[in-house]
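EI: anyone free to look at a 296-residue chain?
SC: sure, send it
EI:
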Amino acid sequence: MKRTHRSGFTLIELLVVIAIIAILAAILFPVFAQAREKARQTSCLSNTKQVALAMLMYSQDYDELMPVGSAQGNDGNWYWNFNLAVPFDWRPSVQASVPRWYAAQTHWGNSTQPYMKNYGLWACPSGVPTTVSAEDATPLKPYANISYTFNGLLSSYSQAGIATPANLPLLWEGRGKVQVKGFALTVPALICTNPGFGTTCQYIPAGGSGNGSSSAWFGVNTAWVHTGGMNFALSDGHSKWRKLGGSICKVPANNDAPTDYNTDPFTGYNAAGNPLYAWTDGAHLWLFRPDVNWTN
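SC: here you go
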């Protein structure tokens, strides 16, 4: 009987092939991850542009005034430092008799919705869904997941008063790499503590007094939402990605290099991309002031 011999891989050959595949995977997987993140960044950029255009359309219908950032409740108080529901009536714990229910109706998160017709535009694909109100675990209706924040220094501000619309942020990822379930927050927000119907809450430059003469910003889980930066929609309606941080803005290096105050809200970042301090003029966040002639 004639014997036949089959040729095949030896153990050494198989190990070499496996090692080559592992090396290729190690090289290609980060590239694939970067490509996916770039796609998310592009989708997010499109979202910010569409929301910005909705805000500008709103402004055209309301005597060229920007949306309300610090909303007033039916008790006369300004809810400038509150998360407000979007849509305004999804929360089972807050009904029409509660001032925040009333305030949320006029807040930018809801007032601009007729110009968008799509709550999905509020969510950045790179954001992580985050809960801020466990008491509202059973919503009355679907809510929006919101990644973007409005420049509150533009609250009820006239478009004609914006010195350089192409450089002034209108909308940005001011909460970081998140999708907040059901709530919108204004960042920076005008500090408006003087209550009463008939009072106003509008931007007053540093040195003034009363509602709107100073502003505040709230915690950001990480400002490096997209490859060391984030997306901004500017007040003329266009959107762009901006690198945030100094010359060594690269994880895991500690970012202690100076930042550019013409394009960056914050003075520096830690290794995780969390902002340390913000650039201010003593009253307002530097980058968001509408009456400044920005050149960059």
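EI: The chain has one domain: 29-244.
SC: 👍
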